[in-house]
Amino acid sequence: MRPMVTSADLLIVKVGGSLFSDKMTDRQLDEQALQTYAQLMASLYRNAPGHVIMISGGGSYGHHAVRCIDESDELSLLSLGMINFELKCVWHEQLKRCGIKSYPLHLASMTSCVNRENFDSSAKFVNKLLYAKYLPLVTGDALLNEQGVLEVVGSDYVAGAFKDLEFNKIRIVIMTDVPGVLQKSATGQFETIKEIDQFNDPAQWLWETPEGDTSGAMQGKIAALLKQAKWGAECFIVEGQACLKNPRWLFEEHSDWPEEFKSTQIIWRENNAKDTEGY
Ligand SMILES: Nc1ncnc2c1ncn2[C@@H]1O[C@H](COP(=O)(O)OP(=O)(O)OP(=O)(O)O)[C@@H](O)[C@H]1O
Ligand SMILES: [Mg+2]
After folding, report:
1. Which ligand is nearest to the CA of 237?
2. Are 136 and 101 in contact (CB under 8 A)?
3. How many angstroms does the Cα of residue 131 sit away from the middle of ligand 1?
4. 170 CB less than 6 Å from ligand 1?
5. Exposed (0-12), middle (13-18) or buried (19+): which is 27, by Cβ within 10 Å?
6. DSSP 174-221
7. Ligand 1 pocket, residue 16 CB under 6 Å
8. Which helix (H) or strand (E) holds 244?
9. Which of 39, 107, 170, 228 has a CA-to-CA distance to 123 between 20 and 30 Å?
10. What tens digit of pLDDT does each residue of 23-69 get?
């Protein structure tokens, strides 16, 4: 791969659970896929050491853990963080084989949340990790909220924990099993929606989330990225497969991305009088 340029100071990449597991199973992983995406993360890291963070989707680990939560027992929420820590260890080993020093972060030990969608600052330690050229490795977790109660925070939202890092331009890329948010064209073909902002109603495009999916599928990603776009991150939903073919574009200016590298950008539009309460 030829050296990439870096148009983002910090690249936060989520590898969707759908890319390496079947969320309906209990902790089954696709070894080959893990290897492939670890190699992708390694190549991104090598292009810009200290400028990349990896988030792993929960897949068959996280979804299964959330499905098993006993609502009457607050402590049972902790199982999500524990199981996801096992998943981070799996990634850590894969990345180690690629020669990359990743640092699995137990999100719940480094930050708390206002609620499951908004975080307190956790910048200091992560800044140090990046400075030391580690690849921070994060997943969803059960975090303490302002009322001192545990809340499940899904991996689509995790990037919000990094909003106070010392970087001018932060890009968040969510990789999943489809080429962005799709809609049916007049000819009946699916096409990628290029931009979505807070004034669009995603319900018009989204199909029903299957029972057993605990992340809200595409709707969860759009809602989570609107939050991050609001604080200034540049946010995209892309297909993992396409990133394997085109990793260099993840660092380059969005305006330079070729037509065949499909993406949905989630945008927060400022200075608009419409009501945006709730974000
Ligand atoms: N309009 C839409 N366009 C694209 N995908 C959509 C749309 N509506 C719903 N989806 C669903 O969203 C899914 C992607 O989200 P999903 O949560 O399944 O993936 P993930 O987060 O990568 O993996 P996981 O949740 O297993 O960890 C797609 O596979 C698709 O089924
Ligand atoms: Mg999901």
Report:
1. 1
2. no
3. 34
4. no
5. middle
6. EEESSSSSEEE-TTS-EEE--EEETTS-GGGTPPPPPTT--S-HHHHH
7. yes
8. helix 240-245
9. 39
10. 999 999 999 999 999 999 999 999 999 999 999 999 999 999 999 99
pLDDT at 152 over 70: yes
Q: Hey, whose CA ends up nearest to atom 24 of ligand 1?
A: 17
> Could you identify the residue written with the tokens 């929606």?
193
- Backbone φ, ψ for residue 118 (5° rounding): -130, 135
8 lines ligand 1 (CB under 6 A): no
- Whether ligand 1 lies within 6 angstroms of the CB of 206 is answered as yes
- Those residues whose beta carbon sits under 5 angstroms from the ion ligand 2 are 215
Q: Say how many Å lie between the CA of residue 209 and the centre of ligand 2.
A: 10
Question: Closest by alpha carbon to 28, among 85, 90, 78?
Answer: 90
The partner residues of 143 in beta bridges, in order of sequence, read 151
Looking at residue 272, its pLDDT comes to 60
Secondary structure of 76-131 in HEC code, one letter for each residue: HHHHHHHHHHHHHHHHHHHHHHCCCCEEECCHHHHCCEEECCEECCCHHHHHHHHH
- pLDDT, one tens digit per residue, over 101-146 is 999 999 999 999 999 889 888 788 999 999 999 999 999 999 999 9
Walk me through the domains of the chain, giving residue ranges and CATH numbers.
10-267 (3.40.1160.10)
